[in-house]
Write a structure and sequence with these properties.
The structure is a homohexamer of 291-residue chains. Chain A has 291 residues and is of the alpha+beta class. Chain A has 9 helices and 17 strands. Chain A starts with a strand and ends with a strand. At the A-B interface, helix 7, strand 14 and strand 17 of A face helix 9 and strand 16 of B.
Chain lengths: 291, 291, 291, 291, 291, 291
């Protein structure tokens, strides 16, 4: 019922892994195929296209649903419904950002300091022009087709580019002057399709499954046994958001406790649980969590 | 006690993965060894050979047990006991088939239309000849050693070849005229060894473990909590063959439900369970299922 | 609070996998970095160095905690506290050994038989000299920088070298005359740091997590249902060290049994459990076990 | 004295090979560096950039000399001096072409047949719009970022794309309707720099060396001995443009003949030379030819 | 005019290299294409097929010319014209042989010793049967599809297989009992095509070029200068089959000497030439030699 | 007659390439073999060993001839005869050096400034101790087993290490304080073997061939024709060390000139030769040069 477009290129492998984990495995004849199928009654067509092109195609109704980055949605000013952000990677609090970067030793302290005629290279010319207009800067925006950060200072004076940790900018002698956008990978939908009640329900199911898989990657299931006397101390250690499940054991005085906890807390939680009287502590991997 | 022969070549990696998952890990000095061992009291000899040759060797009693494809059992007309079909891959309703294929634009609509003297290339000459005899076709069967589908039309007029999705045939301008055989990977046994009571018991254990691992790949464990009022609705959603386990929770009014469900149904089941009142829904991976 | 030194080289990948499994993931800019971080409140500095150098640096207090082999601790006669042995690999009862090896056809039956002036090549010259002194042998010890086993007989008469399965020795026409040391990978600590109560508590937590991950690799969680009548037979089959958890099922006459069992026993245990009346038997993977 | 910009991406490896063969080896810290040096007194700065961007930068005087494709010079309508075409590959009469391609079964026979509103995907939007204007077609030009040929028919109705052999077009069910441009790799110069006498002399030396290396790839040195009587017949066989060198041999009645001949003619020339009385025929590889 | 079939598989890369060196470069869309072209006026069709199948296709006239091994020509008893043996590799006096091999410790000393009913595995069943008939042995010939040498002793008693150095046989505990065939790669022609005068001339040209390239791989061109007094000593050192070219130098008393010599003799020849008074000695690579 | 030991490890591939180019191809069963053969009547045994160990074994007479670095000859103070330096790489005037390096921002300006008790890590402890003794520095020398440059400042205060371009030192924040040794790869001989007249002659032949191949890599053969009038100008351009060969052409007024010139001069030489009246200029590759 839904047609779906997925990003070719740098997001491709991570997207396929996530759909696989969400029990929405995408199957193709080969890695280079642009058409695919998903064994799901709600998805009848799957296509791979460059992330730059996806927002427009979803806006135009060529596809009901798409996966792409917020950067390209903003660059193309596409009118689509954003259903969810997907955090693919396990770690890193720092999201991808689109930033204005200038040479380390330049005198500029804010975007407004940029002189008229400043040359700026970017893969996001529209977003860059809008941003500069807002700051009253009259710049020459030079479209870039890659390796933007290596064009300063001989080709341009500044750049607007994607950065994750900033290390590539630093390596090229640049510092961040301003942030235009913080960009996540998003699930987007066509407005018309989303207004259709049946299609919206199907979209919500897909988002539920994707979100459940993303969540599962950051959590584990902890199981342990505990004597009645130690139970309060053990429960007190469980992270706030957790609702542990208690089960009486056949052997009377002990209880079994199960709780889903963030993977990032396990390194301190497990020693603490043992110190509080927990025993036979097990950590099990989870494939999906839907609360 | 049992001697075992495994297929070298295209089935090799999948077979090793399956034995590993079945806790029957096959260990070899190197990937190119033809001899191996399994740490199991029931298996005393492991050998790798081409799948073409395996049916004959099992029939002749050189091995008690073997893994090979139905295609080669049929081609060689071997008299062996088939203990089980193994479905290695997670997905795909379409099994491997041995088909008769002809050029897209040829006039033939059925095997019987083939003219006398038609040239047919195949890796399965015996099976092909039997099939053509049944249809009263007098063909020149040309044995092939690979790339059969690329030999039409300059070398031969038609082929008999393995196909999974048919895409390689289409890419070579061929269409399927008839299907000679649908072929699965099978566990086969020597008739004499299978008549021996002790050996048969050992064979059944091996098949139990392999089957348990195959089954686990297609299922997951779903756990959830549910209020008493919603329990009937939740149970009603569980696939027919499922026998959910119910456990009372320490916190009175809720129950914990656990069920092994087919992985292929999870994409629709989890949204439905949530809609029916299930909460704290977890999906866990399984390594083996024995009912 | 703790500074940690990890081994560069052949143990590196396995050490990183283990820390990852222990929820102590080590993050580096690139594979060739010598500095890293662990997201853990107890570890504030991580360094990679050659395993040969690690025992001395831990003894000298440059690091609180280190991972290296017993072979290098002994070779350097470092005065450190050994907190735990880590068995990285799943299988193989045979640990790594430092052995004295001589040609197959040499007349020597024990170390004491070696004649004065015998030439011995080794990467462990200090350990070798101490060993030979104990046996009253006056040898020429030739330091080796690799491929020691290929130097007999044209360069030296015998070697002292690491061996795991002995196959490399045999391939070079050598046999083991004596064993100088059985060597495991160990977690070692600086004496002063270990005497500090707070640091020792932190060390014990780290060892608990590492040990829990190592243990989990060799075990699985088996779950099954059983009728009351068959329960004693099922419990009798469980390995001795196992303490199965029993849970009453909502459906009266059946019980659910869960037990952590060694992976190596599963191939015989599961068929036996089924024969004893167990049903709906599941095997689940485990990430960590803390008893 | 000269600054030079080389193309990053698909032309990169071939360009580096050619400069190496021209004794103008380009050295970089790593394959991913965007800056490099050449050990040559005439070149003081080397830069790698995307071929799309190079024509503009050379026009603007950011570089004196550049290597890029005619396709991008035309797309960007850059005003530069073209010094030489470089034919990198040994073979293939068919140059790269920018073509308008439509579905095999479409009714259109020329560009003028395209209906108003036709959707066309391309990496060359400017060139495409100019071409369509000339043919009076009002099209929607959709910029493409790769895999253009896989977008027909569901995304667009036609494409303008690069093609070498046309096989990728055919595989996607497309046929060529018209050719917009035949494109070679070219050495281009900035107008101002080229007007500077000293710079122009340096440019001519570089082009001489590059051309000498390109030429050497397509030629070989043939040496042979011949009796005086057969000399005229042998010389008559030499390709027209060839000026063979004759040397008297010490042994009186024979001559040695040497000639540089096109590699492509060797397969017919050598048998003919032998038939005409040539003997001791040798073919030697050449590194550079400057006539 | 000629159609040509080349061997797919183990001989493929070496064949392509040789045709390239012979200035008959074979071009394909990709490595997996089965059709190709050669830029030569005498060759109008090029096809890749398995070497097993080539002799028959050439006999049947599907191709005029083919490259395959003598082993398959003999096995298939194809009636073709053999135009030339090609020695692809630089070194090794030992050609490939088809041998009868038996276990090291078997009592048999010649083929005739083999008992009736002996089981022999081979990829050459026809050749094997003919050979055994000649020796009066009644054997069970078991067709093999690879790894023949690893089938003794549990599957068969002996094998007939290809061997180059014998090391694979030895590694499998086998020794050679008899040699059925010494096999080179050959250029073969269809009888009818070869009888056609024009086609035969074209074939001879192709063989001349291939042979010239093979010969060039084993030779180098040595150039040196020498004083008149030392000339006889220098010439006396040149290998017997060599006809050195002498050229007077402009500088009177010296001569330039050039000779094509076997690469294998250079390591002793060059020091000897220098000792005899040669100077400015150069060694140059050669691409083709036609005498 | 001669036994030869070659370096295992980082010099291995370059050494094998050089022996191949010298027509002394080294053949081994596999890349990991420690024994090899050379098809040369003067070499009867070839062995691979670590470069650290080679000087001692050659001194002790276990081998007649060896290839290793000057760094290890000096470190081990071995008494061997050095026959030749081998410059493997085409480029780089900067040889490998063993240097004393300290942090960029340290106050020390010469080795003598180092304070007593300074900690120095190195793979060359003996050479380091001798050097520090000469400068009156009392240091703690810490043996290193790799990654020495990454140990400053947390493990040691300074290092003695190999450097080629200095870039790895700079990347680790170090600067060179002093140079202990400039190290080339050398051909070394055992004193006794070298005193044997026949063995010395054989050694000189080997060195002649190796040197001829090294020299050939840095030179090319330039051939050109020139009119009598232009001959003096053309000859004047030839590099000083060159002795061009002049040959009269059959066509009277022109001469052929041939000269071996350094590859590094070709980029300026060829344009100059053309400007001076040279024509039909060819550059040919050379395999060996013996003057």
């Amino acid at each position: 019922m839904l047609s779906l477009v997925l990003p070719k290129g740098s997001l491709e492998a991570a997207t396929l892994d996530l759909f696989d984990a969400a029990d929405l495995a995408v199957r193709r004849g080969s890695d280079r195929d642009y058409h695919a199928v998903v064994d799901d009654p709600r998805i009848d067509r799957v296509r791979f296209l460059r992330p730059q092109e996806i927002p427009q195609y979803v806006e135009q109704g060529l596809f009901d649903l798409g996966i792409t980055g917020r950067d390209w949605i903003t660059e193309t000013e596409s009118d689509v419904v954003s259903l969810s952000e997907l955090q693919y990677s396990k770690a890193t609090g720092q999201p991808v950002r689109v930033v204005l970067a200038v040479p380390m030793d330049s005198p500029w302290r804010s975007a407004a300091d940029l002189p008229d005629g400043v040359r700026i290279s970017t893969e996001f010319p529209a977003m860059t022009r809008r941003f500069l207009d807002q700051h009253g800067v009259k710049a020459v925006v030079v479209p870039s087709y890659g390796a933007t950060e290596a064009k300063v200072p001989d080709i341009v004076d500044a750049i607007v580019d994607l950065t994750e940790t900033g290390s590539s900018l630093r390596k090229n002698g640049l510092r961040v002057l301003d942030t235009l956008l913080t960009s996540y990978t998003e699930v987007i939908a066509n407005r018309g399709a989303h207004a259709d009640r049946q299609k919206r329900a199907a979209m919500e199911d897909i988002v539920l499954l994707l979100g459940g898989a993303v969540r599962a990657r950051r959590h584990v299931l902890v199981k342990l046994n505990v004597a009645a006397a130690d139970l309060p101390a053990v429960l007190a250690l469980m992270p706030a958001a957790t609702s542990p499940t208690l089960m009486p054991l056949a052997t009377g005085e002990h209880s079994a406790v199960e709780a889903v906890v963030p993977k990032a807390t396990v390194n301190t939680l497990i020693p603490a649980l043992k110190a509080a009287g927990g025993f036979d502590i097990l950590e099990l991997p989870i494939s999906k969590i839907v609360e």
